[in-house]
Specification:
single chain; binds zinc ion; globular; Helicase, Ruva Protein, domain 3
């Protein structure tokens, strides 16, 4: 699932690609992925422009010129792919211009711009969605997100509050979007490893120093992952279909039965908070 670093990479790319371009045409191929009635969705996008692109947690917020907002959540396998021209013509024959062959059979929404470039919303497992909301609805949605790494609310005082009086395990806390926005399964495991703390630990029993270390490592890992344009483990790609480079830096995630890069102990995988969870039994206490 794309997490904060992947979604932020997409957001930054899209700013360069689609900002201030007039939307010419919208095609919905699977209505279930659009939370509004098809007609409403199309009517409010065609002729409109994306004037800014924001993000909260893993949710992309396209700010539209008509004061509405197009939300896009990629969930498990969603992709936003930008292709400059759908077809190129050579000697009277048309070719798909893109080597990755977009659009494909998982392209469920197409947004076509006045310069003939296209934004494709693909989603193999179809858990993702697009939705147009007004400002009031957006504000309500925003209240459901917790503190987010690399924003001004992400202070140690706010972070520490999340750990007191909670009997849940550390992994579940890190994944809870209503408390901490943007961290998913990959970075939760990497943060625990970097802080040398097992994801199974009960959060109200962590020491202040451990809580501080988790805070520092969260910022560090998220910042590094953004710099490497995210992690491609399954099917994440950026807006041009390219994979993320942080995968080389993963210490535990997806490395079960491999040796720990630090101590050579075999990385263990367990199920925790309903998710596959990886850790080093030697480095993490
Ligand atoms: Zn180790």
């Amino acid at each position: 699932m794309p997490e904060l670093p992947e979604v932020e990479t997409i957001r930054r790319d899209l700013i360069k690609q689609v900002l201030n371009k007039k939307i010419k045409k919208v095609i919905i191929k699977k209505s279930r992925l659009v939370k509004n009635p098809d007609n409403f969705f199309i009517k409010n996008l065609v002729g409109n422009k994306i004037v800014a692109i924001d993000r909260i947690g893993k949710l992309i917020i396209f700010v539209l010129q008509n004061k509405l907002y197009l939300l896009t959540h990629l969930k498990m396998t969603g992709q936003l792919i930008y292709v400059k021209k759908k077809m190129r013509t050579v000697g009277g024959h048309s070719y798909k211009s893109d080597p990755m062959n977009y659009p494909n059979k998982y392209t469920y929404v197409v947004i076509e711009f006045a310069d003939n470039s296209n934004l494709y919303f693909n989603d193999m497992r179809t858990f993702g969605y697009m939705q147009i909301v007004n400002e009031k609805e957006l504000e309500l949605i925003k209240t459901k997100f917790g503190i987010e790494p690399l924003t001004k609310n992400f202070t140690f005082a706010n972070w520490e509050k999340l750990f007191s009086n909670k009997k849940t395990n550390l992994k579940a806390l890190l994944l809870n979007q209503q408390l901490i926005a943007g961290i998913g399964n990959i970075y939760a495991d990497e943060i625990c490893f970097a802080a040398k703390i097992r994801p199974t630990r009960q959060v109200n029993k962590l020491t202040k120093q451990e809580v501080k270390e988790l805070f520092n490592q969260t910022k560090k890992i998220i910042r590094q992952a953004i710099a490497k344009r995210g992690t491609t483990f399954n099917n994440y790609v950026d807006t041009l279909g390219r994979t993320g480079n942080f995968v080389k830096h993963l210490q535990v995630y997806g490395r079960n039965n491999d040796k720990c890069k630090i101590c050579q102990t075999t990385i263990k995988k367990i199920k925790l908070a309903g998710r596959g969870t990886h850790f080093c039994p030697q480095c993490q206490v």
